[in-house]
Amino acid sequence: MLNAKILEHIESLPEGAPVGARGLLHLGSRAAVDQSLSRLARSGRLIRAGRGLYVRPVVGRFGARPPEVEKVVEAMSAQRGEVVASNGAAAANALGLTTQVPLRQVYFTSGRSRSVQLGKQSVEFRHVPRWQLVKAGRPAGEVIRALAWLGPEKAEAALRTLKRRLPGTTLQEIAGVAHLLPAWLARPITQSIYG
Fold first, then answer.
1. Residue 54 host element (H or E)
2. Concatenated DSSP letters for 81-122?
3. Helix, coil or strand: residue 124
4. Among 32, 54, 60, which residue's Cα sits nearest to residue 42?
5. For residue 119, which of 16, 11, 3 has the smallest C-alpha distance?
6. CA dist 1 → 31, 38, 63 (Å)
7. Which of 120, 140, 136, 119 minimizes the C-alpha distance to 128?
8. What is the pTM of this model?
9. What span, in angstroms and rounded, lies between the C-alpha atoms of 170 and 163?
10. Given CA atoms 125, 127, 132, 135 in this order, what sign does their dihedral have?
11. Of 137, 151, 140, nearest to 176 (Cα)?
12. Does residue 31 sit in helix, strand or coil?
């Protein structure tokens, strides 16, 4: 009976929305909810993503699969009130500054560092300084994280390349937040854009 109530509640949530026992206490006692979540995970009706954290698998014509990583990341960010952004290596790859494709799914967060397991894929949330999360979710933020990943030696050359590719509005947006960045990164940004 409790299993059915939990499944009904979880199925009303969007794909990738994480669920824990605390969010289900209106359905039963803590011990009963914990036990039901464990049973549902063992039976494959839920995926145990981490300690006390579960997600609903997506069922398609080829069977069940974990939800899309991006949807889980967005849902966790919204649920916990954290700022989450792609890491510098992924941003550099997306901007064409490197051909290296990151093997692991790593996201920067304003929250605590932790890992989430989605099927066979591990997703890492890494706590970083606030400046690395400036303009999260915007192209300007991707540029900042990519430059930070490239480091002081390669930042200027990358900025010259990006100046030719990016719209002026994105460059102005980056220049507008340069004062929040470390000096080694702010200096080449302001020189490249205004110099």
1. strand 53-55
2. T--EEE-HHHHHHHTTS-----SSEEEEESS--EEEEETTEE
3. strand
4. 54
5. 16
6. 15, 15, 25
7. 136
8. 0.83
9. 10
10. positive
11. 140
12. helix
Please name the residue that has the structure tokens 């999360």. Answer: 133
Q: Beta partners for 118?
A: 121
- Over its length of 195 residues, how does the chain's per-residue pLDDT go in tens digits? 898 899 999 989 888 888 988 889 999 899 999 999 999 999 989 999 888 889 999 888 888 889 999 999 999 898 889 999 999 999 999 999 988 887 889 999 999 999 999 888 899 999 999 999 999 999 999 999 999 999 999 988 898 899 888 888 888 899 899 999 999 999 988 887 766
Q: 2-65 has which fold?
A: Arc Repressor Mutant, subunit A (1.10.10)
Place of tokens 């059915």: 4
Structure tokens at 70: 């991006």
Q: Which residue has the tokens 């300007």?
A: 140
The secondary structure of residue 49, as a DSSP letter, is: E
- The answer to whether residues 143 and 166 touch, using CB atoms and an 8 Å cutoff, is yes
